[in-house]
Known about the structure:
By secondary structure, the protein is α+β, with helices and mostly antiparallel strands. Helix content is 35%, strand content 24%. The chain folds into 2 domains: 5-243, ATPase, nucleotide binding domain (Nucleotidyltransferase, domain 5); 253-431 and 465-497, Nucleotidyltransferase, domain 5, CATH 3.30.420. The chain has 16 helices and 23 strands. The strands form 7 sheets. It has a 7-stranded mixed beta sheet, with helices on both faces. The protein has a 6-stranded mixed beta sheet with strand order 3-2-1-5-14-13. Strands 4-7 form a two-stranded antiparallel ribbon.
Amino acid sequence: MAGRFLLALDQSTQSTKAFVLDASGAIVAKAARPHRQYYPEAGRVEHDPAEILANARAALAEAVEAAGIDPADIAALCVTNQRETIVAWDAETGRPLHNALVWQDDRGAPLCAELEARGYGPLVRGRTGLAIDPYYSASKLAWLARNSEPVRSALAAGRLMAGTMDSWLVWNLSGGKVFATDYSNASRTMLFDARELRWDPELIELFGLGGILLPEPRCSDAGFGEAWLPGLGITAPIAGVMGDSHAALFGHCGWEAGDAKGSYGTGSSLMLNIGPAAKEPPKGVVLSLAWGFRGKPSYVFEGNIHSTGYTMTWLRDKLGIFAADDEAERLAREVPDNGGVYLVPAFSGLGAPYWEHGIRATITGLSHGSDRRHIARAGLESIAYQVMDLVGAMAANAGAEFSSLHVDGGPSRNAFLMQFQADMLGIPVLVPPRDELSAIGVSYMGGLGVGFWRSPEEILGFQAEPRRFEPSMRPEVREKLAAGWKSAVAQAIFRKI
């Protein structure tokens, strides 16, 4: 294996980032390009696939230039991505037929409700491990096939290519030679048989997508062709493709059954590794492929929370509760408790384990004594409460106890939140010394795939100790706070629109 560096591409909801990593897994340099968010109607969120592709190419070149390395010294390009976001393009022209529909987009909700009412829930859940929900890609694709003339025409002509953002990037970076995705991304579409590891023809027909061209599903450490990087003047093997949450779990070295992590971003994902065999997920939780590694699948229970980091962004930008993110922590610490104030961040409904789409955000418990400090604290606490709900749902059917929770993402830098999270869970919360766990994790996967590292044990050898937050709250206080949160959620559901 030639090359002393890995190049990682992290295509996320807000931006596209590129990283150069060395043999110790350290980030040598990075670059980022934000992309525009399109909100054509309430509940609809779109991205421009062409803009994202251009940003990816530019960010890769910028990161290598910033690292000051010889581009020829790159061993592989590894790709991680926002997951359920779907891109549709023309097989003949290679051009997108519509803006990408983002994972937050819920325009597939009426179709999901229709299929659920017709009794297809058990079929979908049994095959895919997922609940019928507009969060996943299938209903978004079905909406495009019904409502976008270019997409409908391409489908009828057998020219409709569609896939999650990784497949769009791989296809373009490989010059149209490789149309593939990995198991982790495929398992989030609601079209993939999680046990048979193949696209399900019955589900494809159920969503009205007969004749669609879907990417070849592969193990996450497989080869995905050669990428031509015009800004660098080189080709590099594409090795290592994973959805961002799965990559973060791999970056935490959560490779064994019972390992768990929470990724805190715009929304949050909680994952529990359940090992090489698929299991029936508990109510409110879904089954996903963690990854495919060395020819074998690994599975996770997963729950997705719609609004965590976004809650604090909303409090900052829409209400002006604070001016900077670090100010939120200071405000929260200035009061001894939440003063009975709870924020239920159901801006687009509540995700796992509730899956309530028809409710909206509420702030309850306000009194004459309430001020912005209590609201800032309620926003931070809402993140921990939602994770608490998910851990409880998973533990009920996991066959493994949560001994600790590894975390990552911007909000994990908030010490108040992390301590409160440990207190509400009653287990240690572990924060790694490095950010960008998705990029690091997919680099571990790709690096192992091309022999950059010989074994997972080699990677374990250079891991730094995480920062530990130990639970210290009295049980009766924890129970009182949890009861207040559940009451606030019940009030929000009661007001369902």
